[in-house]
Amino acid sequence: MKFIYFNKVEWDGNQIRLILSSKQDLNGTWEMSVWNRKSKQIKIFDYFITKDDKLTIFHIDTNQFRNLKMGNWDFYIKPPKKNDWKKISLKVPTTLSQQQRYFEPIVSMTSSRYVCLNLTNSNALSIHCSSKDKLEEKVYNIINYNKQIHHIEENKECLIFYVDLSSYMSSDFEVVVRNEFHETYKLLFSANEAELHLYKKQFEKFKGNWFISIQLKKNKVLERTNFYVDEAKFQEENSLKNTKFEYVQVVEGTILLIEQKDPFRPTKILYGELNVEDVTVRDNRIFFSLSYDDNANVKDWNFFLERNKNDEKLYLQKNFDNLNGENTFYIDQDQLELIASKNLSWNLYAEKQHDDYLEVRRVGDYYSTYTGDLKRYKGFIKLTDQLCAVPFISKSQAIRIVFMSVDQYYKHTSPAEISIKSLTVKKHILNISIKLGLSNKQSFKFLGIQLVQRKEPKDVINLPLKNLIQKRGNKVIVTSYVDLSRVDFIPFYWDFFAVILVNGNEKRKIRLYSDNYLVIKKLRHLMFKYNYLDSNEYVTYPYLTVNGGLSITRRKKGDYENRTNKINEYSAYVFYHLFYKYLLNEPVWLVHEKYSETAQDNGFYFFKYSYEYHYQRKVYYVIKKGTEDERNLEKYKDRVVYFMSFKHLVLLISSRVIISSEAKGHGYAWRVSQGVIRDYLNSKKFVFLQHGVLGLKKVDSTFDYNTQNSAELFVASSEFEKRIIKKYFGYKDDRVVVTGLPRWDVLDDKTADHISNRKEILLMPTWRNWLDEVEKEEFIESDYYKAYNQLLHSESLREFLENNSLLLNFYVHPKFMPYVSSFTKSNEHIKIIQFGEAKVNELLMRSSLLITDYSSVSWEMYYQKKPVVFYHFDVAQYMTYQGSYMDLKKDLFGDVATNPEDLVNVISGIAEKGFKEDQKFINKRGSYFKFIDKKNSERIFNEIVLKEKEINKKQSLLKSIKELDLVKVLWRKYKNIDIIQRYGKKIILKLKQ
C-alpha cells in the first residue's frame, strides 16, 4: 500500500490536525516527514496524539516548517521498525477543484516565504511554500479592479492618496505592496471615504520598485484593486517633470510604482464551487447545509436550478430550516413541480451579486466520498404516479435534481437481478420464462408480468401466469405467455415489465432485459419464426431495444420485409466476406436523403459536386427505384445504386463513410431492426450534412453525440450554429465544421420565373412531434390542422391574393402525407403541393415571400435576402413539446403573426413594400451566415478529405469488445457482483491505456 488514509485534516495556520476514527488507530510509534517533490530533501518533524472513544488526532505544529525551502513538500509516515515511507492521503473525492484543494489560511514564515496546506490530485497531503502572491492565486479566485487616484500629497508622517474609498469603508480591507519578485507586505494605514493615509516610516525597509493595491477577502474570492492616475493632470498638479509618468518618490532610496491601467471596469462573472453537506429528503423537501469550510451564511446566496444543456433557470425561494440551524436550506415540492418532466436533469447553483462582479458557484457535496452509485441517490419526492424528483450527487460531486419514475429510482438504488431463461413463438403464442430477484436479497412478492404501452403507460396488458417457482435467495422463476393474434396491440411499442410487491405495500415495475445470448441472436436473425402477420398485413413481433430491453411492436409490414429481401441481405453479407472484402474493396462514400426517396436536398447537391469535380472518388448515391426524384440522377447513373439492392447492401457493408442530410437509418429499411445489416449500418462513420439550419427546433435528443446518430463531422452554417451544436448536442470543437449547406450553392433568385403570371408566396409549415402516428380523425381535431385549414379558407386571405394577383403554394410536409386529402384549397389562388411534386429549392427560388412556423426552410429564404413571416399560433405548446434554441421573441429574422387576420395584415404590408426585407432583419444576416459564395460543397468535401484518416480510424479495442453481444450479456448478468465490478473496471482502465 502506497498511502495511509486519514479521514479528515484541519488547519488553522498554527497547527495541522490529522484525524482518524479509533478503528483505524495506528499502533506504535510512527515517524512523520515532509519530502521536497523536486529535490527529494527530507525533513522529519514532531507531533503528538490525542484520543477519545471515537477519534485519534495527530497534532503537528506549523512552526516546524519555518525553514522549508520554496516548493511543494509532501507528507509521509513510516511504520514502527520499518523503512517503508507511505504518503499521507485523505479520503476525499478526486473531483475537487484547485480552490477546494488549497486550505486557508496562508501563513507567513518569513518576509518572502509563506506556506499553505493543500491536497494533490491523488489526495495526498502537501505543504506548498512560495510567495504570498502565488499562493493567493491557488487559494482564491482573484478579481482585479482599477481605481483612479486624483491627487497625491505628503506631510511629515504620511503619504496621502485622494481616492474614492466609499465602497470599502464597511469592509475589513487591507493595503499591500508587492514587487516584481512576488514579495508582499501589509501596510499600516488609515482611511476615510475620500483619502488613504499611508505611514511613511514603514517604507524605509523597502528597496526597489513596489506596487500598491487594496485587497478584500470574501470567502474564496480575493478582490484586488490597483491604482492608476490621469497622467497629464497628475503631472500638472504634482509638478512632476517625467515625460512619461511612472512613479512617485516618497522617501529617499524608495520608489513606489503606481500602475497605469485602463479605468474601465468590466462586469465579471466568477465561477467556482460551493460545498454543502447533509443532502437529505424529508417531508417532501430537499435539504442541505452550507459546509463549515466555506465560512459563509447560506442566506448570503441566491440558489437556482439550471437545466442540463440549456439556459433555462428556476430561481428558488429562500427557504431556511431554522430548527436545524440557519445554514440549512431546503427546496420545496411546489417549486419542483414547476419544472417536472421525465428524464430531465437540473443542476444546482448559487450566486451572489457583488459591487462589480457576479459570483456563481456550482453547488455540490465536494468533500464526501462515494464508493458506489447507490449512495449518490439521496431519496425522492413523489410528484405524480409516474414521476418523482431525485437529488443526485454526480461523479464530479455536484448536486443535480433528476426527474424519473419511481421504478427508475428503485432500479438505481435497489437493482433487480433479472434473466430471460427462454423465449419462443409457436403458432402466434409467445412463451416467456424469467428468473427474478433483488440484488440486496430483499424479500418480495411476485405479482405478474405486464406489457405497458410506451406512449401511454396507463395502457397495460396483464399476462397470465403458467407457473411460478420459488427459489433460494429470494428468487423466483416465472413462466407466462401472450397470444399475439388476440391482443389488440395499439401501434407501436409495448414494453415488458415484471411487477413485484416490496415491504408489503411498495409496488415496483421492473423492466425485462435479456442477458440470454441465444435469445438475442434468435430475435435478430430468425425474424420470420418470431413474427406474426395478420390478415391486414400488420406484423407483430418481440424485439430487443438498443439497451437490451424486451419489447413487442405492431406495425404495418414494410416493403422490404419478405424472404426474398432477407435472402438478398445474407447473400450480400456472405459475398462481401468471401470475395469483395479481399478482391474489390475500395474506399466508398455512400450518400442518401430522407428514406432514400429524394434527390433534392443537401445530400444530392453534395453528391453532384463530388461527381462533377472529384469523379475519381468512389461516391455513390442511394435512391429507391421508381421514385419521382430518380430522374434528377439520370446524368450520374453510373454512380447510383438502388435502395436495398444486392449492390447497395454490399457497398453499405464495405463503405467507409455515410454522408446524409438525415439520420443514418434512412439508408436502410426504416424500422427494421432485425437481420445482419442493421449492425453494420449503426457502426458506420457518419458525416451529417443536416436537413436545415438549427435554431428554431430542438432536435438534440435525436442527433446527440452519445446516440447512434452521432457524426464524425457535423456541418454548420455559422459560428452561431456551431455554438448550438457544441452546447446542446455534446460535440467537440474539431467535430463541427462551418461550411454552409450544399443546396445553397444552387440558390438563385427566380422570382421572375413564375409558373403563371403571378408572384408566388410559399406556405411551408413544419410537423409537430406530438402528432406522430395519430389517426386521421384525431389529426382533424388537432389545433394544428384547424389553424392551417382556417387560414386556407380565410376570406381576407382570398381577397388579398386576388387583389394582388398572387399565388399561394401550400407545400405539404412529408408527415402530412397520410392526411393530405383533409386539406382543400379555397380558390384558384391557392395550390396544395404534395411532398415530391416539386423541388423545395425551386419553390424557394421562385417565391417572393415565405410563410412558415418553425421550419428550417426559413433560413433558405433569409439566405436569398427575401422576407420571412413566422406563423406562431401555437408557440406555447410548441415550446413545451418541441422547444427552440433561439429566443423566439428576440432572435427571429422575420415578422411574427399568431392568427390568420394578423398574418394577412403582415403579408399585406410586405407586399405594399414590394416584398423587400425590413432593415432590422438585414442587419442580423452577418451573425447567421459565414459564407455566401456557392462553395459550400467544396468546403465540405475538403473537410472530409482532410479528416478522412481520423474519420476512418478503427474504433478502439475497448469499444469493439464492449459492443460484442456476448460481452453485453455477461456484463448484464454479472455486473452486480462485487468482484466483477472491481476487476471489470481495472480491465477497462488497462484497455484505455
TrEMBL record:
Residue spans crossing the bilayer: none
Gene3D superfamilies xref list: 3.40.50.12580
Domain of life of the source: Bacteria
A Pfam family: Glyphos_transf
Protein name as it appears in the record: CDP-glycerol glycerophosphotransferase family protein
Native organism: Alkalicoccobacillus gibsonii
Lineage, opening ranks: Bacteria, Bacillati, Bacillota, Bacilli, Bacillales
